Prior knowledge:
7 strands, three-stranded antiparallel beta sheet
Amino acid sequence: MAKHKSDGGLGFKILHKFNLAMLGKQGWHIINRPQSLVARVLKARYFSTQSFFEAPLGSNPSFLWRSIWETLGLIRAGAYWRIGNGQSVSVWGQPWLRELPESLVSTTPPLNCARVVVSDLIINHRWNESLIAQMFNKRDRSCILNIPLSLSSCSDTWCWKFESKGHYSVKSAYRFLVDGFQHREGSEIWKRFWKAKVPPKVLNFCWRALVNVVPCLSSLQSKRVPVDPSCPLCHVAPENVLHILIQCPFARSCWLSSPLGWPAPSASSLNEWNNVVWKGQGQTASGVFFMALNFLQQWKAARVVSSVSTIVDPARPIWSPPPHGWIKANIDASLSLQRGSVGFGCVIRKDDGSFVVARAGSFYSQMDAKCAEAIAFREALS
Ligand SMILES: [Zn+2]
């Protein structure tokens, strides 16, 4: 019942994990607001010489601290530094890479570099690539160069890696506690099942039948209740879920009197029978056609993303001027996954189309398309 609905459960929360996810918010506040009264009191009492992540439970801890301390593993797994000026983040021992699942640097620190902070790796708002190449292994080097740097020297902030906006949420924390770092796809059959437009009690009964928890004589006998398990309607087979709903002659006559007919069961349980029926429908000629069509569309979409900079659509308008007295900047970015580089370009024109200025460049990074577009905007405005 505690499984997600798309995995065949009822979506009930696992209370212990849900409680941890809610408590995690308090842990998140301690690292985000170290100047708050509660953070200062807890630090003075329990981790005065260490960071929150290294805090011990301590002797005779309060109920509050014991509860927050339980969330250390969760916060440690989900929090990382978003680099601003890099002055408050130590290169070693603090999570600041954006990679999943490990945000710590994996390179062994050189003997005399234990106190290096991230700002030491930055020159003029750009990564010092030659220094990074000397200091780090290949994985760390690639992760570091993928981090976009701010031009405004803002301070470093904590970021929650399971939310795109970086803010802690109970929902994402609970999802991590249940599924870990794996992305849960869910079953297509279950998703369609829960969307069925039928009364809730019918849906509930169907769910109970599919997960085999409908009370019937066979299940009573399996629990050592002294009953005759044979079907009281036909007396020819044990009464189980598959028999009651599909195999029993009475059930068959019900099916046959409906427009659906009676799909011959070749399965040992109702869930298996359900899969046979649904998957059987997927193998029709139209099903194969739509699968091929879907594949073709996905392939076309992938082609567009991987070669954004080379496709020119002749049907698109070439350029539309801005309002009178304005200038217009056109900006674009491209990604080369093979070379691991990002390219950007921008051109600024007046309202009569006359050229003002243009800029283009590229750098080595493996960021995603959103980040590449954002970097292109930043470069255009700088
Ligand atoms: Zn029967």
